[in-house]
Every structure is written in C-alpha cells, then in structure tokens.
Amino acid sequence: MEANKDIYVIQVKHSPNDKAYTFNVPMKLIPVLKRNMCVTVKTRIGKSSGVTVSEIISGEAANEVIKVSGASLPLKSVVSLFRRIPLDSVIISDEFAKTHPRSDTLMNCYEHYRKYKKFNGHIVVDENGVLIDGYTRYLVAKMFGHKNIRVIAMAI
Q1: pLDDT tens-digit series, residues 136-148
Q2: Which among 25, 45, 38 is positioned nearest to 81, based on CA atoms?
Q3: Among residues 18, 53, 76, which one ends one of the domains?
Q4: What pLDDT is recorded for position 1?
C-alpha cells in the first residue's frame, strides 16, 4: 500500500459490541466531525449508521490505522452527520410553508411514529438549519410536541 499523506480517516462502530471500522472522512466534514457523533457511512452493502469512536486520524497515523485494521482499499466514506437540534430552530422555506402534505401521507407518518416511536425516514437540514427534506416528519414531530429532533445536519 502506498502511503497517502492527505488521507483523513475515522473509526466507526455500527453497534456497541461491534468492531470499529475505518472510514474515509470527506474534506467537508473534517471541521465538524468528532468522537461520539452519529453518522451514516457508505459500506460495501449500502448505507449504515454508526457512532464515531475516534477523533479524525490523518497522514502517516491514518495509513497505519488502515494497515493494522485490515481495511480494504479504496475506503468507504462517512456520508452524513446526525445531530439533535431544537425543533423550533428548523427554518422552513417559503416553498415548504405554502405546501401541505396530503392528509393520507401525514396520517401514515403519524401512525408509523405513534406505533414505532421513530420515523421511517430522515429530517434533513442544511448547514444553516433550513429544512431540505422531511417536511411531513417535521410536522409530525411538532404534533407530538417534540422539543428536539434528530436530523441529518450535513450530507455529502
């Protein structure tokens, strides 16, 4: 393996008892990604979520981690970062505000959340907190009186 000085990696566990896997960190996430953050990663079988169990490792140390961990190259990447944010901090664009989800769509989302205590998709905001996707889930979170919600706060 040829050493890469410009590589940034982080270790992620998919579950508490799982081994730590090594993932590439895209440049956009380097300033914000830390230990104990919830992330979505691209794996060989699709996307999966996990928790970071290291700080970002770079340069020669990253090359050593890749070698020792037995990670296959090219590395798969972290693709998004989850955060819990206050529901009232989500900014709703005029485009979303003037639309209303179909009543059956809203009811299905409501019933799914009531039954499983989780959404069947994500609420996505940009780096400024503007809602990009998940307006129906946002409305259902409001209906249930949530103060904070889990969002994808930065996606690649």
Answers
A1: 999 999 999 999 9
A2: 38
A3: 76
A4: 47
Angle at 121 between CA 143 and CA 23, to 5 degrees: 135
Q: Which runs of consecutive H residues, i.e. helices, occur in 1-154?
A: 59-69, 94-97, 103-116, 135-143
Residues in the chain: 156
**How many domains does the chain fold into?**
2
Q: Which residues pair with residue 39 across a beta bridge?
A: 50, 81
**Domain of 132, in residue numbers:** 84-155
Provide the whole-model pTM: 0.72
What percent of the chain is helix, strand and coil (3-state, nearest 5)? Answer: 30, 30, 40
Domain final residue, candidates 33, 50, 76: 76
Q: What is the phi/psi pair of residue 4, to 5°?
A: -120, 115
Measure the CA–CA gap between 116 and 120, rounded to whole angstroms.
9
CA distances from 94 to 87, 105, 140 (A): 17, 20, 19
